[in-house]
Amino acid sequence: xxxxxxxxxxxxxxxxxxxxxFIIAVLPVLxxxxxxxxxxxxxxxxxxxxxxxxxxx
Length: 57
Fold this sequence. Notes:
By secondary structure, the chain is mostly helical. The chain has a domain at 23-51. Helices cover 56% and strands 0% of the residues. The protein contains one helix and no strands. The protein has one helix at 13-44.
C-alpha cells in the first residue's frame, strides 16, 4: 500500500515575508539613525520615502 502524505508547501512563508520586510523597510531606517544620530535623522528622514518615526515637528 502506498501512503499519501500531504505536505504544506507554504510552511514558513510568513517568516520569510517578515524577514524580507524587515530588511527592506526597517533596517535602512535603523542604519540611518545609527549613522547620523537622532538629531540629524530628523533632517534626513524627509528625503526618503519611509515615514519618520518618533519625531516631533
